[in-house]
Amino acid sequence: xxVGKRMLHTGVEQGAIGRYVLIPGSVERARLISExxxxxxxxxxxxEFLTYVGTLEGERVAVTSTGIGGPSMAITxxxxxGCGADTFIRVGSCASASPKSKIGDVIxxxxxxxxxxxxxxxxxxxxxxxxxxxIFRQMEAAAKACGYPYNTGVTITxxxxxTESAPETKPVxxxxxxxxxxxxxxxxxxxxxxxxxxxxMGAALxxxxxxxxxxxxxxxxxxxxxxxxxRDWERRAIEVAICGLRNIIRKDQAEQ
Length: 256
Known about the structure:
The protein has helices at residues 27-34, 70-81, 133-146, 162-165, 173-185, 195-205, 234-255; strands at 20-23, 38-46, 49-56, 59-64, 87-96, 106-107, 111-115, 150-151, 154-158, 190-192, 208-215. The protein is of the alpha/beta class. Strands 1, 2, 3, 4, 5, 6, 7, 8, 9, 10 and 11 form an eleven-stranded mixed β-sheet that branches. A hairpin with a 2-residue loop joins strand 3 (49-56) and strand 4 (59-64). Helix 2 runs parallel beside helix 6 (195-205) and helix 3 packs across helix 7.
């Protein structure tokens, strides 16, 4: 590693972070997550990439916002991996695709349908998008410990936000509707925009990855009104991620 080299997009400098990173989409959520760190400090902010550092269990941790979607998330992960990070936990939101996922539920996906294109730049389409099993189990254990309702079903990773809520407006509507029906019949429980490429990058680059999200809708009850978003419940996903990360750090320390 070249200590001091600054990353092009995130602005993070090599040597400035540790191995553990939480990656929300929004800068607002990054600030909120940083409040759970010991001794949080603003590190840098460039474009959509806002980074705070701090400590948990005596280990250096970071949070960096990625913006929306797979491409900018992939930039974040590659650059922070270049700074030494190897454990990435997405803390975000998703929409229900099944009665099994309700508004306010914590969602910890066990895999992701690949309705996206970024992952194909890392692994062939036949390769499954799944989180690191050990990190996934730690997140599930943390949800149980926090006492929140949670779901561990398959998430559908999409590249275009409105192809889910308004597929009928697209020239490829028949293909979109066919895919959504197939995913739901196969048991997918929610939809999001970053999980599949994150999991595939984990496999391709040797990273430990998982995702913890808050379900922002009920099944077939999408609303474009921001007042319907369960902002007070965002902390559920954050608290699960922080609890799980603390346990991961303790386990890593015990194995050193």
